[in-house]
């Protein structure tokens, strides 16, 4: 393997197209399509008494109006509960259009189709829905104390309750270990709701030609959307194609499948025999997609004089909004990944997940981990303060050591498999991050503080992902994988992998993602899994193709396959560059059917004809067990997840008068195993840190007591600009994963995970007050000063 691009900072191949405005996003498609729009509930909780569409019927250009009653049985069923769990005793999902009751502002009630979006919106404005308002449940305290119910058949609004316990080595429960410890602390931590808010909202565009349905969706999971549409519309899978065009960010919210609109728009397209498109507007995105974070955590911890945690007990109250399409995955991730790089004596975690009349909760970049890391890292800081020790020393005292891997945390991970860390070097990471931020030489000054935060992140979850690789007679390499891209740079990294495995120039490699016509079996892009899953699947498929190419070339060159290598797309005998055959010719030789007008085929005949497909009289042109062509497919399915890790540190300054908070410096040490492209990983980390600073200082969903989201626009939902984000100093440590052939771990969510904990640590250091909630605004900090 001489064309080595794996590990190089190759420029992102998708950027020239995207940066010159040539991207094709959902709304760039279907300019002649009919438009769909939705009447959405203005109430957080209400019964629908009547829907009167009479006035809307006069709108010129109106094509159709649908309520739940108009939907056929299959389409009108509640949306699927995607990840059931035995602890989720009362899982509830929404109907595609509300049936009798609405449970949050923004829930779709009526669908309108018209010749354009303006007319569709005009018709929506004329539809009168008669609501009987019900008492809304807003906020965690309200959910457990008010006695009002979001779902009449869910007592106490409790959807799920789960306890997980890991006793100490000597058999003590967490409670016993805490009671017996020399020191104990207890405190409460609050994390508010936020959301993914990608630049491009959701959207779907469907065409029906009388036999087949083609759907474009701005999604993270095109194959699952396809399965959901086929099931809901009663179509065979082979009659449905789903294509993710360029997707302008997802950050988690586009993993929900199907969204109501993804079922309703194709259904109406089939019914009307017309193309239909729906593009979400920003307000719709805020009030009718999904949010996350939103958790209260009560911690009790017992520790010794060195700060070693002997027992920890965490009780979590999680607000999952009105519905649970993703079950309880968020609090499960919090409770299992809270442990971070540490080995605790005994651990007990308990959570209750409750319904409120607010937008549903589904994973948002980091997915429950920022909450868990906030909990664990605040705990470490509080222990250090209590003992008067350096915060990094306390962390180091609890670290899993490099010679302890694989390390079994004795819990069940989110995928139902044992929580076993595969590799890592946490002490070295701590040394690196301290050096990068200058921890030991930090110059103390009034209103300046330094903070730190560590995390471990399970990445590359299964069950599988696949890759298909084909070399054509022009020497080009065509790679496809079923998962989708939303900006992560997959066109570049997957091409790097294929170019390295096959020994071809990267310019000859093209990559297709998220198109069920090209690759039908896939899971999707979430949970920092694409690099591990599709990366390894593509490498395995390339290895199959490479082996076949060497076999055919060896025949043609009358050489031994073991003596061949591929460089710059040419197979040659090691040490004899003249004994060579280009991969383009090998691709021709791989197919016994030759076309006379094909120059490459003509050239190939100069070889002896002993290649597979050659003229040997003793065997058929395509040998048994072989296939024509130079292509291969393979799947990667891991036995369990691989665990990336990182440590971040920051310096902040607070204004003595206004309490404004500025992040002066931010440093990251990150370990995602073998790096495919360090530049892309850094970009992912920088984006994540920016999102994390948003979550720590600015972004929150503000509901009033009526369940109205009062900041549902980019005028009111505060996001950081580039001016609020410092340069992020980054260093990498590579502890290869022993679990997969490429030795990689995921990186896509890493940047965001510890940021709230790091910023809290630094503000606390600057101000000397407890920072026990996130986000924190200047006025809240001002109040804390007392
Ligand atoms: N990578 C690498 N070497 C590694 C690991 C990763 O070069 N050892 C590269 C990958 O090849 C990929 C990128 O880093 O180009 C992220 O890889 P991975 O960790 O596998 O994450 P995914 O590709 O599965 O992306 C999902 C992840 C998640 S969960 C969210 S949320 C998120 C994120 O990625 N949403 C994003 N990053 C995003 N970036 C953009 N621009 N837009 C989003 O919506």
How would you sum up this structure, described in words?
The chain is of the alpha+beta class and 786 residues long. The protein folds into three domains: 32-134 and 196-288, Aldehyde oxidase/xanthine dehydrogenase, a/b hammerhead (Aldehyde Oxidoreductase, domain 3, Alpha-Beta Complex); 159-194 and 291-462 and 639-785, Aldehyde oxidase/xanthine dehydrogenase, molybdopterin binding domain (Aldehyde Oxidoreductase, domain 4), CATH 3.30.365; 463-590 and 629-636, Aldehyde Oxidoreductase, domain 4 (2-Layer Sandwich), CATH 3.30.365.10. Helix content is 26%, strand content 25%. The chain has 19 helices and 29 strands. The protein has a seven-stranded mixed β-sheet, with helices on both faces. Helix 17 (678-698) links the parallel strand 27 (661-671) and strand 28 (728-732). Helix 13 (490-502) packs parallel to helix 14 and helix 17 crosses helix 18 (755-767). 56% of the residues are buried. Residues 608-614 have low confidence and may be disordered. The protein binds pterin cytosine dinucleotide (MCN). Residues 198, 249-252, 365, 459, 486-490, 493, 525-531, 672-677, 680-681, 684, 687, 744-749 line the site of pterin cytosine dinucleotide. Its EC number is 1.2.5.3. It is an enzyme of class 1 (oxidoreductase). GO terms for molecular function: carbon-monoxide oxygenase activity. This is Aerobic carbon-monoxide dehydrogenase large subunit. It comes from Nonomuraea harbinensis.
């Amino acid at each position: 393997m001489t064309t080595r691009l794996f590990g190089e900072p190759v420029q992102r191949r998708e950027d020239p197209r995207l940066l010159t405005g040539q991207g094709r996003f959902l709304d760039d498609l279907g300019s002649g399509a009919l438009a769909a729009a939705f009447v959405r509930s203005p109430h957080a909780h209400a019964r629908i008494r009547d829907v009167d569409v009479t006035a809307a019927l006069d709108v010129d250009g109106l094509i159709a109006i649908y309520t739940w009653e108009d939907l056929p049985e299959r389409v009108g069923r509640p949306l699927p509960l995607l990840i059931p769990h035995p602890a989720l005793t009362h899982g509830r999902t929404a109907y595609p259009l509300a049936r009798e009751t609405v449970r949050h502002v923004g829930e779709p009630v009526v669908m309108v189709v018209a010749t354009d979006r303006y007319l569709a919106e005009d018709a929506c404005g004329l539809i009168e829905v008669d609501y009987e308002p019900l008492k809304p449940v807003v906020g965690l305290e309200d959910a457990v104390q008010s006695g009002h119910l979001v779902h009449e058949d869910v007592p106490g609004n409790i959807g799920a309750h789960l306890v997980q316990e890991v006793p100490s080595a000597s058999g003590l429960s967490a409670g016993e270990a805490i009671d017996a410890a020399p020191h104990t602390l207890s405190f409460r931590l609050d994390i508010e709701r936020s959301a993914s808010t990608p630049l491009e909202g959701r959207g779907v565009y469907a065409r029906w030609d009388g036999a087949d349905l083609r759907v474009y969706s701005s999604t993270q999971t095109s194959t699952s959307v396809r399965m959901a549409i086929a099931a809901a519309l009663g179509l065979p899978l082979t009659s449905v194609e789903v294509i993710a065009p360029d997707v302008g960010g997802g950050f988690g919210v586009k993993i929900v499948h199907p969204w109501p609109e993804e079922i309703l728009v194709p259904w109406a397209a089939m019914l009307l025999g017309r193309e239909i498109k729906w593009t979400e507007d920003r307000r719709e995105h805020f009030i009718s997609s999904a949010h996350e974070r939103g958790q209260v955590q009560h911690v009790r911890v017992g520790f010794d004089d060195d700060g070693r945690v002997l027992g920890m007990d965490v009780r979590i109250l999680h607000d999952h909004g009105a519905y649970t399409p993703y079950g309880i995955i968020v609090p499960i991730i919090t409770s299992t990944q809270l442990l971070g790089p540490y080995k605790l004596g005994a651990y007990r975690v308990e959570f209750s997940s409750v319904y409120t009349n607010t937008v549903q909760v589904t994973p948002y970049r980091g997915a429950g981990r920022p909450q868990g890391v906030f909990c664990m890292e605040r705990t470490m800081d509080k222990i250090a303060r209590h003992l008067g020790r350096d915060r990094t020393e306390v962390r180091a005292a609890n670290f899993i050591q490099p010679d302890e891997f694989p390390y079994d945390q004795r819990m069940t991970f989110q995928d139902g498999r044992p929580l076993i860390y595969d590799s890592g070097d946490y002490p070295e990471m701590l040394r690196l991050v301290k050096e990068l931020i200058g921890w030991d030489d930090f110059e103390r000054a009034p209103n300046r503080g330094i903070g730190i935060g560590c995390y471990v992140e399970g990445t590359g979850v299964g069950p599988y992902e696949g890759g298909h690789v084909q070399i054509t007679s022009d020497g080009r390499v065509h790679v496809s994988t079923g998962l989708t891209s939303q900006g992560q740079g997959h066109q570049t990294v997957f091409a790097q992998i294929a170019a390295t495995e096959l020994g071809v120039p990267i310019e000859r490699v093209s990559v297709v993602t998220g198109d069920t016509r090209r690759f039908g079996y896939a899971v999707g892009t979430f949970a920092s899994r694409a690099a591990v899953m599709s990366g390894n699947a593509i490498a395995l498929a390339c290895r199959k193709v490479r082996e076949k190419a060497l076999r055919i070339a060896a025949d043609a060159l009358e050489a031994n396959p073991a003596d061949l290598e591929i460089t710059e797309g040419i197979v040659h005998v090691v040490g004899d560059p003249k004994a060579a055959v280009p991969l383009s010719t090998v691709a021709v030789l791989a197919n016994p059917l030759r076309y006379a007008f094909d120059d490459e085929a003509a050239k190939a005949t100069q070889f002896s004809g002993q290649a597979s497909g050659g003229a040997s009289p003793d065997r058929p042109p395509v040998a048994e067990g072989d296939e024509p062509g130079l292509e291969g497919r393979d799947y990667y399915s891991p036995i369990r997840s691989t665990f990336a890790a990182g440590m971040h540190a920051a310096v902040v300054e607070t204004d003595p008068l206004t309490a404004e908070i500025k992040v002066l410096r931010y440093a990251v040490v990150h370990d995602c195993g073998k790096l495919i492209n360090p530049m892309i990983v850094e970009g992912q980390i920088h984006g994540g840190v920016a999102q994390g600073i948003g979550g720590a200082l600015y972004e929150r969903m503000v509901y009033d007591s009526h369940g109205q989201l009062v900041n549902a626009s980019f005028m009111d939902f505060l996001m950081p600009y580039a001016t609020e984000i410092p340069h992020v100093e980054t260093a990498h440590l590579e502890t290869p994963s022993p679990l997969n052939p490429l030795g990689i771990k995921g990186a896509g969510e890493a940047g965001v995970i510890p940021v709230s904990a790091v910023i809290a640590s630094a503000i606390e250091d600057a101000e000397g007050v407890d920072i026990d909630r996130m986000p924190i605004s200047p006025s809240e900090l001002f109040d804390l000063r007392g």
